[in-house]
Specification:
Helix content: 25-40%
Strand content: 5-15%
Shape: globular
CATH class: Alpha Beta
Order of helices and strands: HHEHEHEHEHHEHEHEEHH
CATH topology: TIM Barrel
CATH superfamily: Glycoside hydrolase/deacetylase
Structural class: alpha/beta
Number of helices: 11
Number of domains: 1
Number of strands: 8
Length: about 300
Amino acid sequence: MSKLRRFVAFVFAISGIAFCIREIFQRGKVIIVIYHDPEPDVFKKHMAYLSKVYNFVPLSDLVTAIQSRDWSGIPKKGLVVTFDDGIKQTYELLSLFREYKVIPTIYLCSRIVGTYRKFWFRAGLENYGRLKQVENSQRLKALKEAIDYEPDKEYSDRQALNWEEIREMNPDVDFQSHSQSHPILINCSDEECREEIEGSKAQLERDLNKSVEHFCYPNGDYSAREVNFVKNAGYTSARSVDIGWNSVNSDPYRLKAMYVDDDATINVLKVQAAGILGYIRHLRKGRFDGTHPPYV
């Protein structure tokens, strides 16, 4: 984390702006925060802070409230905790989920969990971000040529949760869908995109033995096509990485969120949960409507 980011976060934190945003602008709204792979000691500090100033809300409660237009069951200053990808180290956080009585949503990639396959962006290619801008077939070709990567190739080390861990976590965690293999959906063909969305739902429902109702757009990239595919597949919500709060008037297929650095200090966490650093980052890239610059 850069010194500049920490300094900016410190200034906003001590100025009380984050407090004002939480107490005034979040009225009647719910925050969704995004994690990927935080260390247990850092996550414990995060939960200790968040549990004092917010009220944890399961994702399913938020979506039900939006669909029914009944906000009466949503507490003030509600916050939903989500994790993208299903990284294997997330298992180490289970005791903290229980301790702080939070039911996080972990979005799984159905063709990677329970295997020794790798996430394409964790496979060892430097400057992989450029591959987010090309057609899916070109991305796969470039990965094969550069590092001999293939989506179904098994490696010696495991990156994702296995099924034993998932089943142990299942009573305390809401497992949902993050596609099959985490491609950039907007760069996929219609057939590829539909299979990633529909196939992950079917596979996870079979393996989890429960209904899978919520989706998360890989990398946060989506268009009207992806929204329609998600709806047609039978999901009831989809989370983006667009910055903002969620209210009774939110589109459940375009849920907004606040990105949190896995190693954030408490001052950084305060301003990221309030959306301050996210909005600054978006504005620097000319995104005045809150739609996201790319994340992985």
